[in-house]
Amino acid sequence: MGASMAWTSPVEPKLKIVSESPLLNVPTSTELSWIGSILTLGSLAGPAFAGIVAYRFGRKIAMLASAAFFITAYILFLTATTVVQILVGRFVQGCGIGFAITITPLYVAEIATANRRGALGSLVQTFMTLGILFDYAIGPYVSYTAFQWIQMILPIAFIIGFIQMPETPHYYVSKGNYPAAAQSLAYIRGEPISELQYEFNLIQHSVEESMRNRGALRDLYSNHANLQALTICTGIVVFQQLSGINPVQFFAQTIFDKTGTGLPADLSAILLGIFQVVASVITALIVDKVGRRPTLLVSAIGMCCALSTLGAYFYLDDIGSKSIDSISFLPVLSLVVFVFMFCTGFGPITWVLLGEMFAPNIKSMASSIVSSICWLTSFFILFYFTALDEAVGSHWLFWIFAICCAAAFGFTYLCVVETKGLSLPEIQARLNETTPVIKG
Predict the structure, then answer these.
(1) 419 falls in which pLDDT band (50, 70, 90)?
(2) Residues 6+ apart with CB under 8 A from 381
(3) Is the pTM of this model over 0.85?
(4) What b-and-e string marks burial along 339-369, b requiring 16 or more CB atoms within 10 Å of the CB?
(5) Which long-range contacts (CB under 8 A, 24 or more apart) does 202-205 make?
(6) Residue 440 pLDDT greater than 60, yes or no
(7) Which among 84, 66, 79 has a CA at the least distance from the CA of 131?
């Protein structure tokens, strides 16, 4: 997922140079905008199908299907001679992301114990940042064709590694296959099922209760706990995208080129990627100790401060301030702090909450809806990023992102409930205790 998301960062500069590009002509600025943003339309389409596949055929099959999308995309990139084929490849790449980002939190939440659910959920973001760093570290130094072959190694390695993993016990119970569910739980925990009977009974009760109350779209709105969970998760993913993280990741090299700092753009992007990985690892270690809510609040404050500072640098640059040379380090520092704070909060915690707040009978549908909203928001931000940059200036663009981060702090403080160490029934009870979002 991460490697697909950051694909444009090293590739876009190559597409602008005819000798390095597989295309016959240099893409126009509009075509480059589409290459950057159409991925999110694929990511928007993917979750709906992912939810159906996960419900009917299992979480494991849905996750393996995401790898098939990624492999198909890289084949299209390798054989591309037109912008249209690259756009199709990016759309297919997005479908793979849509599958992966919808099903991975669901799979993790269903195999994790309550006291390790946050850490394991946060590792989703950790490995996404490793994929991004993979692009930043390799992409600028190899040819376009070599880069696609190297990228294809990732989904192939995933298939080889993941195909031996079990389906989740929750899925097997939902299909009435109790022996397979027991075998799956024993494999995941590494203990005999005789020592896991209490946990197995809890899973069975939770899933069967959900199946008796089979989820429909109206259940997201008629059930107060589900409505609260939907409101919280939707709000968090929207603010996650309004922070501007995807433009920074997708166009890191272009942004660093624009700052005119003495540090090479490709090296700056690598530093950015390293700090993302470090921050994600830290989050995985602390999230089950500190909690989701405090982590999100600190993340929002940190991102707001970093983006405000970056906007101030671009403002001083825009008015031709003489002090600009003495603070040439500021863009790199600001973006490093920004991605660090994002990866300690709004990056990983968003998907942790999505995986743990909804009842099993509605979880696939809710994940699909929230993921679709996430990528729809991302599409508009990515598509209009360049146009907004030209219209209002880089300083106002990053200040707008900073304002959104400040609003994210307010939303988190007022609406997000703590789920650290709680079972699903306890989370649902806490959601039902909160003030209704919509009063009938």
Answers:
(1) confident
(2) 241, 242, 244, 246, 247
(3) no
(4) bbbbbbbbbbbbbbbbbbbbbbbbbbbbbbb
(5) 202/423, 203/169, 203/170, 203/173, 204/173, 204/178
(6) no
(7) 66
The two three-digit tokens of residue 132, written as one number? 């991004």
Q: Which residues contact 343 (CB under 8 A, 6 or more apart)?
A: 125, 129, 275, 276, 277, 279, 280, 283
144 close to 81: Cβ distance less than 8 angstroms: no
Q: b/e string for 292-305 if b means 16 or more Cβ within 10 A?
A: bbebbbbbbbbbbb
Q: Which residue has the tokens 């080889």?
A: 160
Place of tokens 């099993």: 360
From its phi and psi, is residue 176 left (phi > 0), alpha (psi between -120 and 50) or beta? left
Over range 282-302, report the average pLDDT: 86
Contact 309, 334 (CB under 8 A): yes
Residue pLDDT, tens place only, 175-212:
889 999 999 999 989 888 888 888 888 888 878 777 77
- Check residue 436 and report its DSSP letter: P
Percent of the chain with pLDDT over 70: 93
Q: At what angle do helices 8-15 and 117-138 cross, to 10 degrees?
A: 20
* CA nearest neighbour of 343 among 396, 387, 283: 283
Which of 320-324, 346-350, 422-426, 429-433 is the most confident on average? Answer: 346-350
Give me the mean pLDDT over the 71-99 stretch: 93
Burial of 130 (0-12, 13-18, 19+ CB in 10 A): middle
Q: Are 73 and 96 in contact (CB under 8 A)?
A: yes
Could you identify the residue written with the tokens 């090296």? 267
What b/e sequence results for 222-244 when a residue is b if at least 16 CB atoms lie within 10 Å of its CB, and e otherwise?
ebbbbbbbbbbbbbbbbbbbbbb
